[in-house]
Design goal:
Distance between the termini: 50 Å
Low-confidence stretches: 115-120
CATH superfamily: Amino acid/polyamine transporter I
Largest sheet: none
Shape: globular
Number of domains: 1
CATH class: Mainly Alpha
CATH topology: Amino acid/polyamine transporter I
CATH architecture: Up-down Bundle
Strand content: under 5%
Number of helices: 15
Structural class: mainly alpha
Helix content: over 70%
Length: about 425
């Protein structure tokens, strides 16, 4: 078992980045508002996104390069488009995951305060945001990939056990008739939630780029990371993310459906409600255990996104300028941190809005990543023996049509 876990790495980092807002926030809300009625959307979007996520580690392990080098080989314009899209989304995404993490930290560890030196009082959640980002920076500067690789394994195991326990206990307390009738949202508000729900389920498609970077790092760190090992590692993380997504939908359904309670848009209040989902099922004795599990889950998302975006942006800039910037990663991570703090302070009370903007942007940009990942993996730049088979190719075309269709449909009804 230990040797198997040692082989895993980028796939679990993918799961750590994925199992965050999409699960703790969006999936529990889906269960609370629609019961099990949106399971079709969860399963469908995971199926259709699967090949495009898989192409990241497949290409990296087969070539020793990240998807970014592949994009550049397809054409400089493609990499420029990626760079622009990332600039447009990275700050909002980082703020969305950090604000949830800060809210959980505030609920779990309590309020923190500072002296008011004649300026507007800074809230406890805002202070936690700064503390969390500083801790993430310290870990990333000190330990880099190897620390992330070890940390994420503990986090994922803890989260999985605690979540499955909570769902099983919640089911035993559920008094309504169990319904698996599927629902298609009708009004604009519900459709916007559906798109947001699918946008980050299990994760934004640009994480395929991050995954390829982590796979290259894994190969450098251990000297051997074959395509077969990369695909097994990916499948473990991906299937785990799907199962936990279903578990969080069930948890929202069993505990909050038809309860008359709705989730708050304020980070601190929402986090208390989220932890109470567990404690209502397991009992008050579980508050600390579940609180820590929830916090570490979101902390893993915060630290993986804070690490990956600067890596991708620094590498992109190196390729585009045909020059290696020695401190590129450092400059981008500091820029992302400062940008996150700025957006957070400006929109601290609008957690729901931030999450909605970030998830919808991710869904609308998904067709771009789907198409270029498919073009790259079937191109001459990928070794013939590691190109996808006919079944994966058919699924890829179906996925592109699905993502394009839903994005165009959503934009037409705005």
């Amino acid at each position: 078992m230990f040797s198997f876990l040692k082989k895993l790495g980028p796939g679990l980092l993918f799961a750590g980045a994925a199992i965050g807002v999409s699960h703790l926030v969006q999936s529990t809300r889906a269960g609370a508002d629609f019961g099990l009625g949106l399971l079709w959307a969860l399963l469908l979007v995971n199926l259709f996104k699967y090949p495009f996520f898989q192409f990241g580690p497949r290409y990296a392990a087969a070539t020793g390069e990240s998807l970014l080098e592949g994009y550049y080989k397809l054409g400089k314009g493609i990499l420029i488009a990626y760079f622009i899209l990332s600039i447009a989304t990275m700050f909002t995404i980082q703020t969305a995951v950090t604000i949830v993490t800060a809210g959980l930290a505030n609920s779990l560890f309590g309020d923190v305060s500072i002296l008011n030196f004649g300026i507007e009082t800074i809230s406890s959640v805002e202070i936690w945001t700064i503390i969390i980002l500083l801790i993430c920076l310290f870990i990333l500067f000190l330990g880099k990939y190897r620390t992330l690789d070890k940390l994420i394994k503990v986090i994922i195991i803890t989260l999985t056990i605690s979540t499955l326990l909570a769902v099983s206990f919640a089911y035993t307390e559920f008094t309504l008739p169990l319904s698996i009738v599927q629902i298609f949202p009708e009004n604009t508000t519900e459709i916007a939630f559906l798109i947001a729900f699918m946008g980050w389920m299990p994760a934004p498609l640009d994480i395929s780029v991050w995954h390829s970077i982590w796979a290259v790092e894994k190969k450098k760190d251990e000297g051997l990371f074959t395509p077969k090992e990369a695909l097994l590692d990916f499948n473990v993380g991906y299937i785990g993310a799907i199962l936990l997504g279903i578990a969080f939908v069930c948890l929202g359904y069993f505990v909050m459906f038809q309860s008359g309670e709705t989730f708050s848009n304020k980070a601190a209040i929402f986090s208390n409600q989220l932890i109470n989902l567990y404690t209502n099922s397991l009992g008050n004795w579980a508050y600390i255990i579940i609180g820590i599990a929830g916090f570490t889950t979101m902390f893993s998302t915060t630290i993986t996104t804070l690490d990956a975006s600067p890596r991708a942006m620094a590498k992109s800039l190196d390729l585009l300028s045909n020059k290696v910037y020695k401190n590129g990663y450092l400059l981008w991570i500091l820029l992302l941190t400062l940008g996150t703090i700025f957006i957070f302070f400006a929109l601290a009370s609008e957690m729901g809005l931030l999450v909605k903007i970030a998830t919808i942007l991710s869904f609308i940009t998904a067709p771009f990543y789907a198409i270029i990942n498919y073009v790259l993996i079937t191109s001459k730049h990928t070794p013939e023996e590691w190109k996808p088979n006919s079944k994966i190719r058919v699924l890829s075309w179906a996925g592109i049509i699905f993502l394009l269709g839903f994005s165009i449909w959503y934009l037409t009804i705005l």
